[in-house]
Amino acid sequence: MTIVLSTPGLATADEASNGKDTTYYISLGDSLTTGYQPDVDKDTDVAYTDQLYAQLKQRTPGLKHIRLGCTAETTESLINGGKCDYPNATSQLDAALKALAQHRDKVAYVTLSVGANDILLNCASPAGTLDGACLNSRSQTMAKNLAQIAGALRKAGAKGTQFVGSTYHNPFLGAWLQGAAGQQAAKESAPLVKAANTGITQVYKSTGFKVADVAGAFSSDDFTTQVNVPGAGEMPANVAKICQLTWACTKQDPHPNADGHKLIAGTFAAVLAENDAPGAGESPTPSEPTTPGTGESPSPSEPATPGADESPSSSESATPAPGTDTGANDPTTDGDLAETGASSSTPVLAGAGLAVVAVGTAAIYFARRRRAGEES
Question: Which pTM value belongs to this model?
């Protein structure tokens, strides 16, 4: 049965007709959750959330997807709103909490990816360098906001609801291809991104979330293993993966391509497999923050040997055609996708301009401007 959501998190389908088998997956976050692709400059259904939903639905036939992600969302805007329009809800978090309240005992999974934009869109100085003071301040604010978000979601969930949040891959590794200065920039970016991911991981674990280690899946810190990439020569494994799995090496854009989203979906699926059936288990009980770097979640299987400058290609998972345009956070309703987020006629503040983030002496250009409406 097709379910259509006229507003985020508020289902119009008659649950009684589906009986007790109807369950829900709620996805929240930024452009990592919306499948934004720079080649079409739009959100698409290639998103890891859609691929993960397809996998979860295979083992949970009655599962429905409430898709709430918003491109360019920060931890602050996810709480307070302002980036995307959510009818009958003030923000993405508000929409999620209402969905959890309405379907409290039927929400099986909640996933969250947010925090990267807090730093990327705010800490570039006019001189094109990374502002250390800003980075420190924003990281602390991000952690506080993330704890508020995760804590509120966890409190609103039922005993059997599984909550999983993600770390982030390191797109700055793409600078490696720019020569000596770029290689130095790539190396210097690693500890900064790792520190941010450590903070994200600590917050998730302290609020009772499981962690999908996307950074680990992308081998973000592996400069040691050398990979021979046809047409590009030998390079570190982490650089090869960034070139294979994102647009960082082809369009200087940090977003994952179809293969990247497939790997991220697999990383989440590996964590959720610990409690396969909805209601069979639950997320860890919230506790005091753990020591960073301890108790890491299991790493998924390694992908195929990276290729150079690959563009998105179709995955083998049971998903719609990768890269299909879903509009400005308005996925087409086609049976499995719930219509959420802003309507196609509503201007979406999906980008805060062109963010210039520099590490060392090489500038790396990311966060391409979304042309949604006439925002400037």
Answer: 0.73
